[in-house]
Design brief:
The protein is an alpha+beta fold and 95 residues long. It has a single domain, classed as Enolase-like, domain 1 (2-Layer Sandwich), CATH 3.30.390. The chain is built from 2 helices and 4 strands. It has a 4-stranded antiparallel sheet, with helices on one face. The model has no long low-confidence stretch (mean pLDDT 86).
């Protein structure tokens, strides 16, 4: 008995980077979330979801480029107040 030929395996063209920082609860009754999907490098997309509670950034979900991750970790750890909509939007552009 001869086994059918297997097609050659192709190496993965790109890796998907996923990072979760802090508490990323979408069903918390006192929590708020903001999400953005943006074009990334080499035709890929980046997705960011920020989780807030009591005007503090408590969690982040990042899919795609990790740019800005270190600064977001610092903000989550320090429990810095993020009170205005402009401050929250600015978190999406951290590099």
């Amino acid at each position: 008995m001869e086994w059918p030929a297997r097609p050659p395996r192709r190496p993965c063209a790109s890796l998907i980077r996923i990072a979760v920082i802090g508490t990323a609860e979408s069903n918390h009754p006192q929590g708020e979330q903001l999400a953005r999907r943006e074009p990334g490098e080499k035709g890929h997309e980046n997705y960011r979801k920020l989780f807030f509670r009591e005007n503090k950034l408590v969690g982040v979900l990042m899919i795609g480029s990790p740019k800005g991750r270190k600064k977001l970790v610092e903000i989550v750890k320090s429990q810095q107040l993020i009170e205005t909509a402009a401050e929250r939007e600015a978190l999406f552009t951290l590099k």
